[in-house]
């Protein structure tokens, strides 16, 4: 989730957003291993795949931050002067 035009390390999410994202992640990771998982159609993933996800997971926010930086530089939106309407206007121009 990229929720800010600036540096996500300088613009922290609210406690409620952080806790809800963590709760969904934990439920999604644990649910396949519970008796309820197979009833909902979930299957447990292989240990190797789980390890690969844990190993590569931290790279995903870095990749997203890089793409976000490229996007805002490419479309000349000032990171410090960003307003919600700017992104909507850019979307309307590009659409």
Characterize the structure shown.
With 95 residues, the chain is mostly helical. It has one domain (15-94). It has five helices and no strands. It is elongated and about 50 Å long.
| Strand tally | 0
What proportion of the residues is helical, as a percent range? Answer: 55-70%
Query: Helix- and strand-based class?
Result: mainly alpha
The number of distinct structural domains comes to 1
| Molecular shape | elongated
Output the radius of gyration. Answer: 18 Å
Count of helical regions: 5
Low-confidence spans: none
Characterize the main sheet.
none
In round numbers, the mean pLDDT is 75
Brief digest:
The protein has 95 residues and is mainly alpha-helical. The protein contains 5 helices and no strands.
Q: What are the SSEs and their pairings?
A:
Elements: H1 15-30, H2 36-39, H3 47-56, H4 59-74, H5 84-94
Question: Which short descriptors sum up this protein?
Answer:
95 residues; elongated; mainly alpha; single chain
């Amino acid at each position: 989730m990229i929720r800010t035009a600036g540096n996500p390390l300088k613009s922290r999410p609210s406690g409620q957003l952080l806790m809800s994202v963590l709760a969904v992640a934990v439920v999604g990771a644990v649910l396949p291993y519970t008796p309820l998982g197979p009833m909902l159609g979930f299957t447990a993933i292989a240990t190797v795949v789980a390890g690969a996800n844990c190993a590569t997971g931290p790279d995903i926010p870095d990749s997203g931050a890089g793409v976000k930086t490229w996007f805002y530089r490419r479309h000349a939106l000032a990171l410090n002067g960003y307003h919600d309407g700017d992104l909507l206007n850019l979307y309307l121009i590009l659409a």
